[in-house]
């Protein structure tokens, strides 16, 4: 899912403030105005339950509504929650709500607000709400003013990661969500869809002791075209711009007027060739292995990611806390691939790769893979589909043996649940191997305690590396740029992805499509999962 | 969901239903934003209209003036220079022209904004500077074809017997040019101008997206990519209405210019 996606969006640092400091002064300076450009779109809204669908909405939301917690380097850092604890079998989680937090209309934050917000995020089918659909809404309750009890309909030892994932909090009983107030560092003074939003700082921000909010005024400007965002940054109209596209890394090298910024690696996007293990010829494990060996990952990193990305190891969620770094990197070995194919009786195998330019690097990597597969004796052809149609037909996606995919970063255990196993909402690699994968994933879901959690996630990863259908060959950063005088804007959370119309996916989920890449901003998510 | 969106009914019925609402001024609700389509489109159309009218206000006098000037000296050095320049500009794609203008006037000189930003609640007339580069881009693209047609018409009219007779009768050259040559020469160019008007008023996609101008064409692309059918329908309808209106106006204007058509024998 995602709330998708890859970093670069910068919903600001710690307290959600964007300090206007100079490099020389290590400490941020108060005051000043910042104008920042992000991708917008026709779906822009001030409703927090829709905020994860559009890049600029997400950034604004992170500034206006504080969240229960946030993910920093894949770890949960609690904000409006003071602590989040599971019971022994992870079937009930207890959230302790922070004291002394006020909404911008002066109301105190209470447990009721938290419960109402979570309920609304689930009921309104927001992307982040999709990660907590197993929350037992009937029995969830505010035990007292500061305690929320959240019973689950199945055990989940990673529920804290979901709760730290963009759960915006607004007051209990808010009727018109587009006017919902928040407890964040800024309030929205003026806004028009497709144009801009003007945010002003709050004097009574609860986390003001940490320094923020720093700016006198922050204007978030909606610009759909990536090239226009870059032009505006270069000409000094913007102090910051998100979603610039990888080429900017090269074209702006040596431009002293701005800095190109890449998010930490745990917020990069995973590019993969997805093989459906339930469909021929990938029912044979040797064929799957052969495809993984045939890909020259270093070459793909050089060409498709312009040398800015890194090689993937067939596993989602690299550089996150639970990622198993002990698993050996899949080699590039076309000879071995040939041997495996011939053992499988698949000499002269012909395959079709379904692809589209819906996301950065998908179509390019499919094209680059064709000659690599040819070296291993696989005759591959491309089936290019218009970007807007790529995800519109879910049946086709699940019935395609080989296709490209771009997985946007989410907490690793949640990504595993999203893409693998028989209960996954987006099982691109098929569900035929459920007998092996499901027990491992179920054990992962039940795990509590750091050691146990790490071990169970590692089990699943070992299985996926050996038997999974994803040839995840490269990881790509999202790109943003800051004017020389702008500092301290950090990528936080997962947003950089414009999402669009909602198709009709499996119950409780929705696909969100993005427009063709040319208009988008660099790596963007193909879907934002759970709805 | 299918029932909610009415997809369980036959396409013809859905179309008639839509048509019935449109006649009553109800364009439905955008799938993407949930806002009424009329609001979404009206805002963008207003912006495109301002941009288009501004471009036309530059284009028409320039095309007619230069067309007359070059037509009267067809084949001479001044004509070759102006026509050549205009054709050269037309041969360069919009996105190149726009990027070069942006590089020079926004990047290099810093006189004009690179991105046509309009803040919340602002219209393009509040920030006229945002119109300059898009207008220049659009004019450079549309100028040549209009200028060439005016020039051809003028050149032909200048060789006509009526003009020769007027000259022989001692009518001053200025009067000949403005009263005889220009009206006759404009006739063939008017439909082309109408086509340019349709293009400019209905939203010029490349210029809009290059400069981040919040116009109609950018909305159409956005709506198409997100399969926001009600918005696409409304924009398409508006575009069709514009084309019909502009062509009708052109057809009505031609006889006014040409005495021969005004007084059929």
From TrEMBL, chain B:
UniProt entry tagged with the keyword Transport: yes
CDD domains per record: TM_PBP2
Any one of the GO CC terms: plasma membrane
Keyword Transmembrane: yes
GO biological process: transmembrane transport
Membrane topology: Multi-pass membrane protein
A Pfam family matched in the record: BPD_transp_1
Compartments, record wording: Cell membrane
Transmembrane segments: 49-69, 81-109, 129-150, 199-221, 233-257
Residues covered by the ABC transmembrane type-1 domain: 45-250
Keywords: Cell membrane, Membrane, Transmembrane, Transmembrane helix, Transport
Main location: membrane
PROSITE patterns: ABC_TM1 (PS50928)
InterPro entries with a match to the protein in the record: MetI-like (IPR000515), MetI-like_sf (IPR035906)
Homology family: Belongs to the binding-protein-dependent transport system permease family.
Name of the protein: ABC transporter permease
Protein source organism: Streptomyces muensis
